[in-house]
Amino acid sequence: MLGIDATVVEEPFAGVQYAVYHQVNALAEKCEIKLYHQSDRFKYIPNAEHLEFSNKLTRIDWQQRKLRNETGFDTLFSPSYTCPLDMPCPMTLQVHDIIALKHPELCSLPNRVHFKVLLEKSIARADTIIVPSQLVADDLSEQLNVPANKVHVLPLALDPVFTKQSSANHFKEHGPYILFVGNIEPKKNLPLLIDAYSKSTINKTHKLLIAGRYAWKSDSVKSLIKNYSGDGEIIRLDYVDRDVMPALYANASLTVLPSLTEGFGFPIIESLSQGTPVIASDNCPKEDLKHLDYFSTDDELIEQLDNFEDESFVQDESFYEFYSWQRWAKEFLRIEI
């Protein structure tokens, strides 16, 4: 029996919440689990305990003081950065990144404090650690001296809505556009993309479409978008329903991910799943994928935008098979065994 602490899953969803949600579902199909959660999205899963937390602190307190007393499972999977430090059974910990330790200036104060107190100790306590990319594995080795044999690279996967290319017409009314998807916060480095767009000839033929909610420390970017007066046009979409996200990518000419740091980078595989090429910062994990290019400097991004040729493609079936949650669960259980 596998215990899973999925209490991190709550609205609004970001990358980590989507990952854990799909991991729970995939594991529930392949093995017996005992689930702890606070989301109505899990109400159909048997052997699940629904918990109520008034805030993040009460959730952390439950994890550290009460979860250790739970029984009925052989191993505990903690899928979101931290785990109970004195749990009596073996534990597998998922570390999505160590941005809070490596780049604390890019994290909110509550997250900095939370991870400063518990992240490194959780990594030391866990018997097995899984990470979504070789970049995070290298960070654990270089920054925290975590033994390589304790860490397993297990890439994340696609939401099932992305498992076939969309032919819907949603968002075509915005005309040719290049796309950014993600929460608007400092680590996403949107000022760089806006500046590059303003200086590139691509603004003569394409709009810049920004899809994401304003998050932590986003006021300056909000001002840049609102007051943009350069060539071309910047359009921001707030909430985009998950079911039409494939069309958002499919009808884009290009997706750009300019992040200062990423542990995985869902927009990369989401865009490629829809036949739309990607340009990403080399601060993102390096993946050897067709139609994915990287840039190192502002000038390199401008040059790549200038020379971009608008060509969509048909994604290989092997791509969807590799980036499936079924494959992820199979590999996870192989590591556990």
Brief rundown of the structure:
With 337 residues, the protein is α/β, with parallel strands linked by helices. It is built from twelve helices and 13 strands.
Structure description:
The structure is a single chain. By secondary structure, this protein is α/β, with parallel strands linked by helices. The protein has two domains: 2-159 and 323-336, Rossmann fold (3-Layer(aba) Sandwich), CATH 3.40.50; 166-314, Glycogen Phosphorylase B (Rossmann fold), CATH 3.40.50. It is 35% helix and 16% strand. It has twelve helices and 13 strands. It has a seven-stranded parallel beta sheet, with helices on both faces. Strands 10-9-8-11-12-13 form a six-stranded parallel beta sheet, sandwiched between helices. Strand 6, helix 5 (134-144) and strand 7 (151-153) form a beta-alpha-beta unit.
